[in-house]
């Protein structure tokens, strides 16, 4: 795997996410997950990082409206988002996993792996934010898989370990989003020990009720 192979990094993150879900105990699914979500809803929301790829890859776009992964998040940040609607979509996604959520997540991984095997990374696809190259959209989904798998780990007490290349891409994207939002200096001075980040600092929205961004 090379660190610039966005398909491989995405599929590796999806595999790690599914392995984590497979270790969730039956009595943990109804336990608190993130904000207003229980663990099932959190897993359902995270699984949308596979659902959206399966959906968007078959929705060609005519124009390339967004050219970078950080551009995607920067644009999303400017859009009005109803946190309750985002939270409700998470609950619906959790319900959609059905009686055997682990099997449902595993099936999504199988389907997205097969679909990407035959997809052109340079293809223009229609996302919620506009037309993008598939190769530029996938890092945003890898980011979602990593961040929310860490949320699931915190909620369940189960360890999750991503490949270094996957973590590298997710962290680098977060930094790029911070720069795109004009928060680069604040992040850099905090990371070099010169200042502290403000309470509630985030490059993708809050976690009080649910992630404050659509997915």
How do the helices and strands line up, and which of them pair or pack?
Elements: H1 6-21, E1 32-34, E2 37-38, H2 39-56, H3 69-78, H4 83-96, H5 101-117, E3 124-127, E4 130-133, H6 134-156, H7 164-180, H8 184-191
Antiparallel strand pairs: 1-2, 3-4
Helix pairs in contact: 1-5, 1-6, 2-4, 2-5, 2-6, 3-6, 3-7, 6-7
Brief summary:
With 215 residues, the protein is mainly alpha-helical. Helices cover 57% and strands 6% of the residues.
Could you explain how this protein is built, in words?
This protein has one domain (6-191): dinb family like domain (Four Helix Bundle (Hemerythrin (Met), subunit A)). Helix content is 57%, strand content 6%. The protein has eight helices and four strands, in the order αββααααββααα. It has helices at 6-21, 39-56, 69-78, 83-96, 101-117, 134-156, 164-180, 184-191; strands at residues 32-34, 37-38, 124-127, 130-133. The strands form two sheets. Strands 1-2 form a two-stranded antiparallel ribbon. Strands 3-4 form a two-stranded antiparallel sheet. It is globular and about 45 Å long.
Q: Give average pLDDT, whole number.
A: 93
Strand-residue fraction? 5-15%
CATH topological fold name: Four Helix Bundle (Hemerythrin (Met), subunit A)
Task: Output the structural class.
Answer: mainly alpha
């Amino acid at each position: 795997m090379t660190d610039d192979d966005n398909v491989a990094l995405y599929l590796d993150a999806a595999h790690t996410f599914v392995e984590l879900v497979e270790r969730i105990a039956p009595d943990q699914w109804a336990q608190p997950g993130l904000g207003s979500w229980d663990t099932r809803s959190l897993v359902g929301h995270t699984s949308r990082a596979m659902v959206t790829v399966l959906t968007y890859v078959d929705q060609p776009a005519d124009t390339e409206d967004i050219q970078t992964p950080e551009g995607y998040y920067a644009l999303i940040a400017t859009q009005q988002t109803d946190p309750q609607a985002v939270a409700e979509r998470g609950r619906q996604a959790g319900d959609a996993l059905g009686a055997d959520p682990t099997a449902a997540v595993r099936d999504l991984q199988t389907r997205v792996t097969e679909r990407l095997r035959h997809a052109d990374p340079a293809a223009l696809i229609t996302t919620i934010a506009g037309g993008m190259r598939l190769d530029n959209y996938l890092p945003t989904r890898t980011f979602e898989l990593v961040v929310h798998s860490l949320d699931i780990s915190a909620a369940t007490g189960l360890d999750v370990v991503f490949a270094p290349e996957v973590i590298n891409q997710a962290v680098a994207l977060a930094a790029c989003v911070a720069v795109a939002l004009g928060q680069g200096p604040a992040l850099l001075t905090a990371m070099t020990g010169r200042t502290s980040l403000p309470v509630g600092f985030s490059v993708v929205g809050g976690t009080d009720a649910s992630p404050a961004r659509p997915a």
